[in-house]
Q: What sequence folds into this?
C-alpha cells in the first residue's frame, strides 16, 4: 500500500498535501482499494467554505457510497473536474491525478489533528486486524 | 454467526479475492475488480463460484408427489432434460423463493434454490410433499460453477466435449468429469450465453483449476454477478422479490401457470382481477450517480416507493435500479430517487437495461 511520507492523513482516509497556503485533498490508496472501482464523485464547489472534519464530497463505488470530510478548515479554490467523467483516476492515481480539490487554509496548526505517514500506516494496520 | 464457506475458499484467498458475507456464506465479491469482471463476462468468459446455492433432489410423480402444487411452473409439461424457472408461493401468494426445476427423469427432479432460503425452502417442501415422495437436500455434496460469457461454450467444450453445443436454452444433460456424473444446463443469471455446472463437491477444485488454466477464463465474483443480472432486469430474491410481493407485482406473471393448481393461486387470481397495487419497474439515471437499495422514490414531492435494487451499470455508465411504485407510473415517467440531500433524477424504462445493441 502506498502511503507517501510528505502528506497528512485523517482517520476517514483523506490525505492533505500542504503547499504554502494551499492544500490538495484526496482519498488514500487504502480508501480507493477498499471501495473498489469508483464510479461517481460529487465534489464541493469553488468558494465553498469548509470546516475541518466537515462533509465535503461523496465518492461512489459500484457497491456503495461514502462521504469525504475536509482535512482542514478553508475555502475551496479549485476542484478536479476531470474526475466527473473519469472517476477511475482515483483508483489509478489516488495521490496525483485523482486529487479531489484544492483549498486555501488559514490555520495550518489544524494539522496537529491529523496523522503523519508513520501514524497512518500504523492506524491502517490496526484496522486490518 | 459463523459464515459457511464453499470448497473453493482457499482458491479465492490465493487469488486475493475480496470476501464478504452473502446469505450466511463467506463469498468472493471481486477479484480484479467489479468493472473488469463485468466487462470480461460480457466479452469473454468468466467462472463464478455458486456453491452456496441449494440443490434438492425429489423422487415422485409430478402431481401426486405434491411438487406441482408447490411451484408455479407447470412441471408436468416439462420434457425430461429441460429446466424451468418459477416460484414457491405462500397462501397469500407472497414469494417464498424463486427456483429452477430440472426434470431429471419422468419422476425425478432437481430443485435449485437460493442460499439464504435453502433451510426455509426445505421446511416448506417437506410440509407440502406427499408422504410417498422422496426428498433429499443435496446442497452440501453438490458444487455449482457458473460459466458465463460469449466464449463459455468454447471453454467448456474443451473439457466436456462437443455434446455441449447441442444444449438448447434451459435444457441440460449429463456429462462425465473425473469419472463422476455431473449436470450441465444452458442457463445463467448474466444475460450472456452461459452454463451452470453441478458436480460432486470433492471435484470442484479440480474443475475450477482446469477452467482457470484456460487463458480465456477469468474468475468473477458476486459483485459483477449483481451488476450483470441487474442490467438484464433479473430479480434478486430478498431484494426485488420476497414474501411481501407477488409474481404479479414483480411483473413475472409469465412464470406462473394459471391452468393448474398451486399454493397461493386463489389470492393471485383475485389480484389479477383487481390489478396489483404496485409494480416493480426499472429506472435509469441520467448521471453516473447510483440509486441504492432503500432509497426513496418520489413523483414530484409525493413518495411513490422504495428502491429495491440499485447500482452503477458498467455497460451503460449510468445509475440503474428497480423498485415497486404505483401502477399508474409507466414507461417514460420521470421520478426522483432521494436519500437525505442526494437527489437522482431517473426515468422509468423497459427491461432489459442492456442488450448487445445498447452498449
A:
Amino acid at each position: 500500500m502506498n502511503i507517501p511520507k510528505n502528506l497528512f492523513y485523517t482517520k476517514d482516509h483523506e490525505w492533505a498535501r500542504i503547499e504554502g497556503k494551499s492544500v490538495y485533498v484526496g482519498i488514500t490508496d487504502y480508501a480507493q482499494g477498499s471501495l473498489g472501482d469508483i464510479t461517481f464523485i460529487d465534489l464541493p464547489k469553488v468558494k465553498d467554505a469548509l470546516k475541518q472534519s466537515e462533509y465535503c464530497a461523496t465518492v461512489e463505488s459500484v457497491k456503495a457510497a461514502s462521504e469525504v470530510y475536509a482535512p482542514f478548515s478553508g475555502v475551496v479554490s479549485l476542484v478536479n473536474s476531470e474526475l466527473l467523467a473519469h472517476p477511475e483516476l482515483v483508483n489509478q492515481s489516488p495521490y496525483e491525478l485523482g486529487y479531489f480539490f484544492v483549498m486555501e487554509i488559514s490555520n495550518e496548526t489544524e494539522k496537529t489533528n491529523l496523522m503523519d505517514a508513520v501514524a497512518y500506516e500504523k492506524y491502517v494496520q490496526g484496522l486490518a486486524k | 454467526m459463523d459464515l459457511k464457506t464453499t470448497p473453493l475458499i482457499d482458491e479465492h484467498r490465493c487469488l486475493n479475492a475480496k470476501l464478504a458475507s452473502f446469505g450466511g456464506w463467506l463469498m468472493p465479491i471481486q477479484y480484479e475488480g467489479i468493472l473488469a469482471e463485468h466487462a470480461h463476462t460480457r466479452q469473454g468468459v468468466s467462472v463464478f463460484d455458486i456453491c452456496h446455492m441449494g440443490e434438492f433432489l425429489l423422487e415422485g410423480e409430478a402431481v401426486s408427489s405434491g411438487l406441482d402444487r408447490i411451484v408455479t411452473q407447470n412441471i408436468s409439461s416439462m420434457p425430461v432434460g429441460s429446466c424451468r424457472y418459477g416460484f414457491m408461493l405462500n397462501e397469500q401468494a407472497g414469494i417464498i423463493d424463486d427456483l429452477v426445476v430440472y426434470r431429471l427423469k419422468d419422476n425425478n427432479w432437481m430443485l435449485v434454490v437460493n442460499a439464504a432460503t435453502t433451510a426455509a425452502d426445505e421446511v416448506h417442501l417437506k410440509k407440502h410433499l406427499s408422504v410417498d415422495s422422496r426428498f433429499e437436500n443435496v446442497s452440501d455434496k453438490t458444487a455449482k460453477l457458473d460459466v458465463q460469457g460469449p466464449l463459455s461454450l468454447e471453454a467448456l467444450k474443451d473439457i466436456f466435449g462437443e455434446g455441449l453445443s447441442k444444449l438448447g436454452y434451459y435444457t441440460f444433460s449429463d456429462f462425465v468429469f473425473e469419472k463422476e456424473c455431473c449436470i450441465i444446463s444452458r442457463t445463467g443469471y448474466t444475460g450472456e450465453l452461459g452454463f451452470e455446472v453441478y458436480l460432486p463437491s470433492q471435484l470442484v477444485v479440480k474443475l475450477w483449476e482446469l477452467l482457470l488454466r484456460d487463458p480465456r477464463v477469468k474468475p468473477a465474483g458476486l459483485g459483477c454477478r449483481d451488476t450483470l443480472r441487474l442490467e438484464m432486469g433479473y430479480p434478486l430474491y430478498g431484494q426485488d422479490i420476497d414474501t411481501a410481493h407477488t409474481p404479479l407485482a414483480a411483473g413475472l406473471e409469465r412464470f406462473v401457470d394459471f391452468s393448474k393448481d398451486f399454493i397461493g393461486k386463489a389470492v393471485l387470481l383475485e389480484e389479477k382481477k383487481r390489478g396489483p397495487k404496485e409494480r416493480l419497474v426499472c429506472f435509469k439515471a441520467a448521471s453516473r450517480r447510483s440509486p441504492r437499495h432503500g432509497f426513496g422514490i418520489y413523483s414530484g414531492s409525493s413518495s411513490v416507493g422504495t428502491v429495491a435494487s440499485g447500482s452503477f451499470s458498467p455497460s451503460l455508465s449510468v445509475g440503474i435500479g428497480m423498485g415497486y411504485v404505483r401502477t399508474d407510473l409507466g414507461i417514460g415517467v420521470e421520478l426522483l430517487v432521494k436519500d437525505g440531500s442526494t437527489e437522482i433524477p431517473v426515468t422509468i424504462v423497459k427491461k432489459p437495461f442492456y442488450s448487445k445493441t445498447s452498449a
